[in-house]
Each structure stands twice: as C-alpha cells, then as structure tokens.
Amino acid sequence: DSWVDGSGMLRVRAVESAMQMVGLEARSVGALQIQSPEQLEKTMKSWSLQLRVLLVLAAHEMELARAIWSSAMSDTVFGDVIPGVLELLLQMGRSIVGTRAQMQKEVIPLLESLLGKRARGSGRYAQCINDMCGLRAMLGSSARSIFLDLEGSVGRDVSKVKVLDGTVHPLCAQTLSYLRRLFSYSDVEQLIFSPSNKDGFTRTSVVTAAAIAAASLDKLIFSPSNKDGFTRTSVVTAAAIAAAGLDKAIDSSHLTKIQSKRGQEAASALMSEAVAQVMSALVTNLEEKARAYKSPALASLFLMNNVHYMVWAVEQSDRLSFLGQQWVEKHKDIVERYGSQYHELTWMPMVNALDKVNRKEDPEPADQKLWCEWVKSKYHHFNSSLEAIYAEQTGWTIPEPKLLAAVRRVILMDVIPPYEKFSRHFSVLDFSTNRSKYVRYAPKDIRSMVEQHLFEGRKMSLSKVARAPPTNKQGSRISA
C-alpha cells in the first residue's frame, strides 16, 4: 500500500507540475471580476488550454497505471492522480460561469467519457462528473441567453463611435460578422430556437457554444461597462470559447438525437424571425446614429452604406440565406431609397438649375448687361456647388466597389448631359472679358472628378483636377 501511495503521490506531483506549467491556479469570481477585458480574455484562453492539457494527461496517466498495475490497482492509483487537478479546473469553471463568461467546454464531454467508468468507484470522481454535467448545462443556458441579449444590445448600443466618412459603422460590421460566424454551425438553431429544447445540454448546445464563441462577441460591445449590453465578462467569454474550437472535440456518444423535421422547421422559423428582429434593431440604431450627422447628405450616404453591407453580408453567407429573398429585396429597396436621398440632396439642386436654363424656364434677360450678370450667376452657382461637393465628398467613403460604381454612374448620368448642353451654348458667348473665371470645368473635368476622386476617403485639392480652358465663338482657345 505504501508503494502504491508513494507512486500515486509522485504522479500527482507530476500532473500538478505539468498543469502549473500551463498556468493553472485557483481564481475566485471576485478575482475575475476585477480583471480588465484583456486580462479576462487571456484567462479564458488559458483555461481552455488547461482543459485540453488535462485531457491528454488523463489519458496518459490511465495508460501508465494500466501498464504498471493490475486492473484493480490501476484504478486505485489513477483515482488518486486526476481528481485534485480536475476539481481545481472545475472550480475555475464555476468562477468563469459566475462572471457570466462562457467557458471552454470542448473537452468536458471527453473528460466525462474518459473518467465516467471510474466514477462509480470514487466519490471524488462521481462529484467531478456531476459538476461537469452541471457546468455543461450552464453553458447551454448561457449560450441561449447571450443570443437573446443580442437584439436588445444591438438596439440599445449608445456608443459614441462616429464614422466621419460615412462608411460602415463598427456596430454593423461586427453584428453581421457575429451572425455569419454563429450560423456557420449547421445545428445552431436547435439549441437557441428549438421550442422543445428548454433544458439540458444537447448536441446542438455543444456546437452552439463553439459558434457563439467563434463569433467574437467581444468586438460587438464598445464599452467594458456597457450596462445596456453584454457585461464585461460576457465579452471575454466569446473570445475564450472561440479559442477552444469546441465543435472539433465533441464525442458523438454524448450527443442526443437530432430533433424531428417538424421541430427543425419550427426552430428555423423562430430563428429567421429572431435574426430579422436583430437586423431591424440594427437598422433602427443606425438611423438613430445617422441623426448625429450635421450633413443630411452624409447621413443618407451612411445609411446607404450600412444597409447595403447588411444585404451584401446576407447574400454572401449561405448560412444567413434563411432570411429569404423577400428580406433581401426589401432591404435593397431601402439601400436605393437612401441612395436617392443622397442624390437628391447633393446633385439635384445643380441639375434642376441647369435644366431650368436649358428648357428656358429661367428666361435670359433682354438687357445685355443684365444678361451678362445672369450668365455669370449661373456659372457661379454651378461652380461653387461642384467645388463644395468635391471639397467635402472626396473625404467620404463608399467601401463596396459595385455600389461605388453605381453611385458614380448615376451622378454622371444626371449631371453631365445638362451641363454639356448648358456649356455648349454659353461657354462660347461673350458674357465676360475673363470667361475662364467662370467657365472652369469642361464635362470631361467633371467626369474625372467624379470617377477618380469622389468617395475615396481622403479630401483632395482642386489643384488635382486638370481643367480645360474655354473656347471662343469660333472654337479657338481663349487664354486665361
């Protein structure tokens, strides 16, 4: 017996030493709560690594005990080696759950499988297995609650992050990234949305835990103390679970059967409705953020960019296709509406003024002096409007190339034809002794400004625009 006890103590020390090398130490809920988000994320990743290391060590110790001792004796020796470290890890797991952080459960089913047969002969083992089962159930519940928190958190996000160039807001990008990665797990809807799955830890709850983790919820929340959204520790949870790769370590013997087809259809319907509500909350929040812009045109551009990004993300992800084509078409219409608002606010005042002149709705004065001033005023209005747009909107951004090309195309289609007609008529007339002061831009200059400079995200100087000098009545050049 003394030999057995001595051997067991040596193996305990060896296992403890190995676990200490990967940073295992007891930490209370209180100790975790005072950690910064970065520190908590590091703690979660370490715990994930420690679980995996313990799995390897347990398998090794079991084989070692069997190789040295008889069957009955190997159980005794092995029974003295693992429970102490396992209890410490479970204590850590309970602390993590207590901080609302989803823990790394990837190896707990495997540990249960490895140790389950031994549990009948050891009270400590039995307690460890029960604790692991409880920990698993808590994870399933937390996985559901985190998703259910998502709609409210997205809708209530009051972060002061403001994208000055009108591009995609971090809240939009990170919400869609979360959803795409979450639903890349094929059975995720069964845990969160199945009407019959209220308790326990099913196959889908295992996979979902990994999915929620991989979604990197930490990037979704901007303030560690955000009272309206996820807590600081739930932020860290996601990154922690993500590191675990939970879905790759699930033992099929511990998974329940897939729900019936009717149950799957019901879950899918609930899932589609829930995600649509998240999307609706996101649009509402983005509309609220758009009100912070002083420029209504920039607010419209911002909303166009963000809703377009939502549509693009859904169309690019097979796992979000459950939202349906009707949802896609509806939001494409919203993108078009915001694009039209931008266009009406920015370009149509110029276009309408040119059209009125071209259609003679703004009649030319009969008096020569008044007529000259009238022509000058038309050029001045067009030039000042164009230059103001250029100075401001070269610093704006449309990040998606196809959308950028479409917006530029609409601008050119509406602006170039009436300006060409106006310019052909007036640029050759003697309304000023210094016509180059007024006839500043040829149609090709405007085309270059729009196609090469607008929405590039960096403000540019008009000196970059190569302007063509005006022509005289006979078509020869007039010097500036």
Short description:
The protein is mainly α and 480 residues long. It is built from 18 helices and no strands.
Largest sheet, in brief, is: none
Structural class: mainly alpha
- Nearest-angstrom radius of gyration? 33 Å
**Unreliable stretches covering 5 or more consecutive residues:** 100-108, 117-121, 198-260, 473-480
For the termini, the CA-CA separation is 108 Å
Helix run count: 18
- Number of DSSP strands? 0
Element-by-element helix/strand order: HHHHHHHHHHHHHHHHHH
- Beta content comes to under 5%
Share in helix: 55-70%
Judging from the principal axes of the Cα atoms, what is the shape? Answer: elongated
Could you report the average pLDDT, rounded to the nearest whole number?
Answer: 74
Describe this structure in words.
This protein is mainly alpha-helical and 480 residues long. Helices cover 67% and strands 0% of the residues. It contains 18 helices and no strands. Helix 3 (37-68) packs parallel to helix 11, helix 5 (83-98) packs parallel to helix 7 and helix 6 (108-119) packs antiparallel against helix 7 (123-156).
Write the layout of secondary structure elements.
Blueprint: H1 2-21, H2 29-33, H3 37-68, H4 71-81, H5 83-98, H6 108-119, H7 123-156, H8 170-182, H9 188-193, H10 203-214, H11 232-244, H12 261-290, H13 296-316, H14 325-346, H15 348-358, H16 368-393, H17 401-426, H18 443-452
Helix pairs in contact: 1-4, 3-4, 3-5, 3-6, 3-11, 5-7, 6-7, 7-10, 7-12, 8-13, 10-11, 12-13, 13-14, 15-17, 17-18
